[in-house]
Structures are given as C-alpha cells and as structure tokens.
Amino acid sequence: MSGEVVLTDDGALAIVELTHPGKYNAMSRAMWRQLAQVFGAIQAGARWRCVLLRGADGHFCSGGDIAEYPDFRFDRERLRGFHEDEVWGGLQAVIDCDVPIVAAIAGHCMGAGIEMASACDIRVAADNAKFGAPIAKLGFPMAPREAALVAGALGEATAREMLLEAAVLGAPEMQRRGFLNATVPVEELMAHARTRAERMAALSPQAARLNKQTLRALKRPQAQDGSAQAAMQLIVESAYDYADSPGHREGIEAFLAKRPARFQ
C-alpha cells in the first residue's frame, strides 16, 4: 500500500486525513498527487466552510516515503519532476485553497509534514509533536519552492536551524517561535482543532475567501516595475468588488438587527 489522502464530508467541514500505515503517514508519490486532487475538489466545491487536515494513527506526517527514492532520485529530470510537479503540485493546491485550513498536528511532523503544515492557515499541535526537516542526514537539500514556503512560515532563523543543523524541535518551542497557534495535551488535540474549525465555519465564507486571496497576493513578487506601491495597487483594483454581495449585506443587516448572521 502506498498510502492515501482521504477526504471526508462532515457537513460544513472537509476532513482531510493522511494515512500510510506503518510509515507514520510518510508521503508517497501517489499521496502527493492525491493531495492535489483533494484540495482541488475542495476549492471547486461550495459546501465546505473550513478544512481540517490531520494524520492517522497519532502522527501527522514523518516526511517523504524514502523507500521510493532509489527509483527516481538519482536522475536529474525525474528528480526535478518529482519536486516541481508532484510535491509542489500538492503543496500549491493547499496554498491556492480559499477555504480556511486548520492543521491538527500530533507525533511526527517532519520534512513533507512541515511543508504541508506551512501551507495551512491555523496550526495547532499536541504536546508530543516533533518538528524538523533533517534531510541533510540523507544527503540532499530542500527543493527551492519548498524551502521558500517553509522559511516563510517558520522564519529564516528556524529554517536554517532545521536545514543546516538537522534540528528537531518540540511543540512548545515551535509555539514560542510563532509557528503554532496553540499547543494542547495530545488527548485534547482533535477537539481543540475541531472547535476552531467550526468557529471559522460559522463566519462569512466570502470574507474568508477574500482574506485568503489578499494574504496570498501580498506574498507574490512585486509588480513588474518592482515597486511595492504598484503591487498593492494591483490588489486594490478588485478589493471592493464584494460591495453589493448577499454575504456582505447579510453580515451588516444581521448586526444592525441584533441577530445571528445566516451566511449562505
């Protein structure tokens, strides 16, 4: 079995589970392709208000499935295709998803795991979670797009520590460094993550999507003339197109009427 990325429809929540028995949910090549398909389906759908990403059997993800590596890693073009098409294809689908994503992290969160967590919006971890990317022990670096994603979420100092020292850090330290939003006892992780996901699912889906689009745009390279002002102007051009939308009207009208908003 090469593992699976399983999507479960749970009302307003989309539950995405990484499962690879016996390998702490290590990502196989098939799983990277499935990740892209699953998040593409979530992005295309309209019924989900939040995504909960988790791993099976007490672990998030231990990295890549190293047993597959001899089949392709020693050929330049096949290695490039793996990272640029399969791995980045999966990660890009997570990044491009306009639905808020909560990562619930327990146990191992290494390499591929920390890359996927870096692509999520909210990260909560069990107190037994361990984070790192000790691939220097395997003799190869992190691919450029993946390194940029991780460094952006971790901060450059922590990224350098993980990549250059093969450092492995615990959840409390990762929260102190700003990577995690919360650390809870392992037995409370799923309840805590679900509560946060349900709280987001009750809010305006339009506001969530637009906020994610804006935050994503702010991370893009600057406009062609190189100025931050021009880059911001590109964002501002369409920033207020929601003015006459039903969701916008409902939120304001519900507040003024002192009733809960009913977002569609």
From TrEMBL:
InterPro entries according to UniProt: ClpP/crotonase-like_dom_sf, Enoyl-CoA_hyd/isom_CS, Enoyl-CoA_hydra/iso
What's one Pfam family here? Answer: ECH_1
Family classification: Belongs to the enoyl-CoA hydratase/isomerase family.
Q: What is this protein called?
A: Enoyl-CoA hydratase/isomerase family protein
- Tell me the organism: Ottowia flava
